[in-house]
């Protein structure tokens, strides 16, 4: 199948599945024609949350993965389970998102990702988690969308040229690029050290570099404070969302995630206090 060849050649693929009515029953038959090319299958049943079929379903993400490192959970609406049926075919495929203990069925996989050849795939058992309403309702869904796009496009940059002889250039990570980058960094470091010795530990006049406690200019401090305040606001919103999901994700997951958020908040507050009180 052409889509499998595309992915194996270095492409990225996102597949969203949700049962649709077909002959009086609900089925994922059509989307499974695509998923089956990678040994993955979407279940035909809808996962029910604590409030019944139409309630929200919270999925916990694996924080050790690219898709889950930014946020602990996402909200799905009438999701269907996703299974890896042929593990030996593509061994890198794995479940990175599962429902909690209060769903029916419980602790079932709803998000799968992995490498296929030189490319990457993501399968999610919900077609509505990235709609405008879902993104507004759950900040975690937006973070997941960003992570999915980043992960699927990582390690290559595709550039197409128009014309009769269209060419495709793929830029990949290369040890030579890393070595060249290290050489440049070392050269800049040596240059900086030499300038520091020459000017007695101070930057040349006219460059606007602060010699205060932060080593930043007034403008740089303001920009950094603005970034930290925005990050603090985002973190508080995540904590509020987590509080609303406490019953759905379970006490243990709630406590562990909230503790991590509090730790991050303390770090942010300390950095804000340091910059706000610095003499620049």
Notes on the structure:
This protein has helices spanning 2-8, 29-35, 132-137, 139-153, 175-198, 218-244, 246-249, 251-276, and strands at residues 12-16, 20-22, 25-27, 40-42, 56-61, 73-77, 82-84, 94-99, 109-116, 119-124, 158-160, 168-170. α6 (218-244) runs antiparallel to α8. With 280 residues, the chain is α+β, with helices and mostly antiparallel strands. It has eight helices and twelve strands. It folds into two domains: 2-153, Class I glutamine amidotransferase (GATase) domain (Rossmann fold, 3-Layer(aba) Sandwich), CATH 3.40.50; 175-276, no CATH class.
What is the C-level CATH assignment of the largest domain? Answer: Alpha Beta
N-C termini distance: 61 Å
CATH superfamily (homologous) name of the largest domain: Class I glutamine amidotransferase (GATase) domain
Mean pLDDT: 75
Low-confidence stretches: 155-180, 195-214
Count of helical regions: 8
Order of helices and strands: HEEEHEEEEEEEHHEEHHHH
Shape: globular
Q: What does the largest sheet look like?
A: 6 strands, mixed
CATH architecture title of the largest domain: 3-Layer(aba) Sandwich
Task: Predict the CATH topology of the largest domain.
Answer: Rossmann fold
User: Tally of extended strands?
Assistant: 12
Count of folded domains: 2
Query: In which range does the helix fraction lie?
Result: 40-55%
Helix- and strand-based class? alpha+beta
Cross-sheet strand order for the largest sheet: 1-10-9-8-5-6
